Amino acid sequence: MMDIKHETKKHLNQKRRTALMTLSALFMLIGSAWLIYWLIWGRFEEYTDDAYVNGNVVEVMPQIPGTVIEIDTDDTQLVKQGEVVVKLDPTNMEIALERAKSSLAETVRQVRQYFENTERAETILIMRGADLLKAQLDLKRRTGLVGEKAISREEMQHYLTAEKTAQAQYNYALHNLRASLALVENSHVYTHPLVERAKSNLKNAFLNRQRTTILAPVTGYVAKRNVQLGQQVSKKSAMLAIIPLDQIWVDANYKESQLSNIRIDQPVTLHADAYPGMTYHGKILGFTPGTGVSFSLLPPQNATGNWIKIVQRLPVRVKLDVDELNKNPLFLGLSMRVTTNTYHRNGKRLARSSVSRPLYTTTVYNNQLAQVDSIINHILENNSPDLFIPISHFDVGPQNG
Predict the structure, then answer these.
(1) Considering 9, 113, 203, 279, which has the largest number of Cβ atoms within 10 A of its Cβ?
(2) What is the rounded (10 degree) CA torsion for 17, 19, 21, 26?
(3) Which one-letter DSSP state was computed for residue 326?
(4) What is the rounded CA–CA span in Å between residue 316 and residue 348?
(5) Coil/strand/helix, residue 85
(6) What percentage of the chain reaches a pLDDT higher than 90?
(7) Position 297 confidence tier, pLDDT thresholds 50, 70, 90
(8) DSSP collapsed to 3 states, 121-171
């Protein structure tokens, strides 16, 4: 009986040793595999799950105050650049435009009078010059006749008075001409300062009329629509937001202890909880020049006696692959898991040159004044048909009238 118990105990001990050796070998194998992974790949990877999708949020605001009469889009809908999103009541702006047209017409007629007055002043000056010359010649011919008793002293006094009167009338006409020239010299009817101001007012009124139709500045998806029909909006009213999903990036908040080997242009792999199994690729675009705490509304005051060190995080911007974004779009605020490959560490940590081209542009405001020149030409022609020259001829600068 004792022999059976001894054999059983020996057998159990042997099985226990075998299990322990197997388990130890398994742990050693796992450890060796992890060590090999760390030596080849792991030591060159920096991982964080404190990362979120960010992008441009284009707030659409009116450029003029007004009352909303039409809304052409809503949340979640796609709008393309240049499409109408909101319309304001144009009545006040149309009245202002008609007033500006009338003002330009009146100003052209007024300036035409200035030029006519100048020509009339020149003619009067010529006449007064002729009268002065005649008076001077008459006085000169009779100056030597007083001593010879050919004319009386009273008659001689009349000639002197006539010469002084002619001189005064000439001087008066000369001052009138100078005053008229001061209003028109170095200008044409269409380039006169008063006409230019009236044209500028007309362009501004026309532009305000155009701005009652609000266009989408970018292509994207509508979010945060706050505007309602009949609402009175001001220039600071945020009516809605457009999010261009092709202008998306990820801000990965790395601990400050992880930043030593991260460089610009290093490759990045990303995973989103919204797309299980999907791997995104990108590269490091740059570092935000300050931690999140530095830009907070109330930054911490560490110069106190109860200071506790907290590891800070620095936002690192990651540029995503455009083709992958088109296939599987990301949305603002989604959380991401980011792994940066730091094998190549010769890159820069900060950009050394500025960007020489615009990063984002829109063309929806380029042609707002496309039709205003034809309106101005029509007004100029109707109010000065004998002088009409298209305003495009004056683009090189003012000409003498």
Answers:
(1) 203
(2) -170
(3) H
(4) 13
(5) strand
(6) 53
(7) confident
(8) HHHHHHHHHHHHHHHHHHHHHHHCCCCCCCCCHHHHHHHHHHHHHHHHHHH
